[in-house]
Amino acid sequence: MTLVETPSIADQPRYDCRDAYVETLAQLAEADHRIVGVVNDSVGSSKLNSFRKAFPDRLINVGIAEQDMVGVASGLANGGRIPFVSAASCFLTGRALEQIKADVAYSNTNVKLCGMSPGVAYGELGPTHHSIEDIAWLRAIAGIRIIVPADPIETAAALRWAAASEGPVFIRVSRMSVPKVYSEDYTFELGKAITVREGNDVTVISNGTVLWRALAAAELLAAEGISARVLSMPTVKPLDTDAVVAAARETAGIVTAEEAVSSGGLGGAVAETVVQHHPARVTILGIPEFAPTGSAGYLLDRYGLSPEGIATAARKLLH
Amino acid sequence: MTLTAEHATLPVLGRLPIHSSRAEQIGHIAEAAKQIRIQDLKLVHHAGAGHIGGDFSAIDILATLYGAVLDISPDTVNDPERDRFILSKGHVAGALYTTLAAFGFLPVEELATFLKPLSALNGHPNRNKVAGVEANTGPLGHGLPIAVGHALSAKLDVSLRRTYVLAGDGELQEGSNWEAMMAASQYQLDRLTVIVDRNRLQQGATTKETNDLDPLPEKAAAFGFAVVEVNGHDHGELLDVLSAVPFRPGKPTFVIAHTHKGHPISFMSNNVAWHHRVPDAAEFQQALRELESPRRELV
After folding, report:
1. Tens of pLDDT along A111-133?
2. Is A285 helix (H, G, I), strand (E, B) or coil?
3. What pLDDT, on a 0 to 100 scale, did the predictor assign at position B8?
4. Which of A5, A23, A30, A66 is catalytic?
5. Under which main EC class is this enzyme filed (chain B) (predicted)?
6. Residue A258 in contact with residue A210, Cβ under 8 Å?
7. Which residues of A are less than 8 Å from B141 in CB distance?
8. Mean pLDDT of A222-234
């Protein structure tokens, strides 16, 4: 007889988080007339066609004009609406950075910025379309909360939280398919890390599309007798300082792994925290350069963000 | 020398009775504009900083809006149905603060804190600190997109509230304005009014020498706006145009207000040096004399 093994996280079905995004946004809009979508011609790439059909007046398409898009969202919020801006993260954050700073964050307007297809999701389209800088750019701006969900459940939960909370939020919405990491009863809590796997030898801190890879890395390490703690850090800002300090204190070191530039993102936030509160060894995995051509999966693997790459970084910390 | 409470002597002007005549309204605006200029002169002189040229360019427009056009008062400053005014040329914050004080939105004594440490009265306005400010502006080209968003919210609400935005002419060199104008036209935001303070001077030179905006009326019309040109220092013309929104049903309105930077001070008017120069003691006294002269030519 053949033993049925518990499948690895890597073998689970995969989901496009944009589907959870549009489904949740429609539910929220159904329940609250204040919610509107704002897009830069990005209806299709945001998968918002069904939303537009259900709420034709409430999907505002300003065309290919990101500065205007974010300013318009700020004005809509001034009028009592709750705008969810939905645009490719590279253009939303890059082209409208000053509007995000002045009209949204500094003005403290109730605008929800949803960066679609972030990281290297647009793999072969090249670095102009990669959005690896978005987190670092926005981390430098006061007053904006940064959330990087890891799966469709967390994407939906973060959206529900954002709709119910007052003030500026940036949420990354992945188009790279990912397995479910969380159970259906998951509730998002701002600024809280989730221990998705207990462990005492070494800690991996991750979020977004890389979190499941971190879990798969922990499976590889467990097979070698290494106990890796995996912390999910969906909120990059404000960071869960306590969880980071505990990891620094209780394990031999920390590996951060994210689909973002390897300076100024989650890794930077963790390193800043560790240095100030409990110095420890930290290895930052991310994308350190303008990437060559290749698919998103290829690029993540290339920069050590594969399960084996993350496991290798963790092993090095132990020696 | 710093501004103190004794320099903040602006009389607070109430709202006119609803059925005031046009002549009464114009008189009210003229008195407000005069008092705002005198107080703003003190503000900039004593603070040792500010943008007095742009302030004086815009004060007749601000006095007209707050004196007789905008459906907003200190009591309705948070009313969802209030009209909105967004100052896109945020560097003339001094003129806006003084106007808000003149109409009772801001305690007159608070003007004495202008630019001082921890004051709510920053060099550029902050909506979270100053009642009556609708948007944190300063970087140019931001006000019009925000105004479009607000006008869209009013349209979604099927509300009659109106949105006014005051932009500098040099500011129109920012592309975000033209993005916003396309959207305003596309969405037929006919309760949105853009007022351009057309003084033809930017920080260091004329707009024509820098990045010419003309033919501005034709450009605005090509972007789908109903275009009106007025003398931006004539309170009657301003009142008539700004009260007549929508100027053309289905179209947003683009008011080109022809103004002079530094108006009406003899040595400041239309002088590019007065973008952010601060009057010294002699200049302050002369400007004050000119403003207080009862026979001062308005235009």
Report:
1. 999 999 999 999 999 999 999 99
2. strand
3. 74
4. A66
5. transferase
6. yes
7. 67
8. 98
Give yes or no for a contact between B276 and B50, defined as CB atoms under 8 angstroms apart.
Answer: yes
Helix and strand totals (H; E) in chain A? 12, 14
Question: What tens digit of pLDDT does each residue of B254-285 get?
Answer: 999 999 999 999 999 999 888 889 999 999 99
Tokens of B116: 């001082």
The pLDDT of A65-71, averaged and rounded, is 98
Cα distances from A122 to residues A55, A172, A280, in angstroms, run: 28, 14, 35
Which of B128, B153, B176 faces A75 most closely, judged by CB atoms? B153
Q: What is the DSSP letter of A7?
A: P
Phi, psi for residue B86 in degrees, rounded to 5: -120, 120
Question: Mean pLDDT, chain B, as a whole number?
Answer: 94
Residues A136/A140/A146/A148 CA torsion (nearest 10 deg): 10
The question of whether A66 is a catalytic residue gets the answer yes
- The alpha carbon of residue B147 is apart from the nearest alpha carbon of chain A, in Å, by 6
CB contact under 8 A, B180 and A63: no
Partner B contacted by A60 (CB < 8 A): yes
Taking contacts as CB-CB distances below 8 angstroms, the residues of chain A near B167 are none
Angle at which helix A152-164 crosses helix A17-31, to 10 degrees, equals 30
Q: Which amino acid is at A9?
A: I
CA of B136, closest CA in chain A: separation in Å? 5
User: From residue A153, how far is each of A15, B111, B253 by CA, in Å?
Assistant: 10, 51, 46
Residue B151 in contact with partner chain A when CB distance is under 8 A: yes
Those residues whose C-beta lies under 8 Å from the C-beta of residue A27, and which sit 6 or more positions away, are none
Buried b (16+ CB within 10 A) or exposed e, A4-42: eeeeebeeeeebbbbebbbbbbbebbeeeebbbbbbbeb
Specify whether the CB–CB gap between B167 and B195 falls below 8 A: yes
Q: Which residues of chain B does A102 touch, with a Cβ-Cβ cutoff of 8 Å? A: 136-139, 142
pLDDT at B58 over 70: yes
Tens-place pLDDT, residues B201-222: 998 899 999 999 999 999 999 9
- Cβ-contact A285, A258 below 8 angstroms: yes
CA distances from A22 to A16, A43, A48, A49, A182 (A): 11, 11, 6, 9, 19
Structure tokens at B242: 């700004």
What would the mean pLDDT of A164-176 be, rounded to a whole number? 97
- Residue pLDDT, tens place only, B150-189: 999 999 999 999 999 999 999 999 999 999 999 999 999 9
d(CA A171, CA A114): 5
Other C-beta atoms within 10 Å of A172: how many?
33
SS3 category, A260: strand
What one-character DSSP code corresponds to residue B123?
S
pLDDT band at A6; cut points 50, 70, 90: low
Percent of all residues in chain B with a pLDDT value above 70, rounded to a whole number: 97
Please state the ipTM of this predicted complex: 0.92
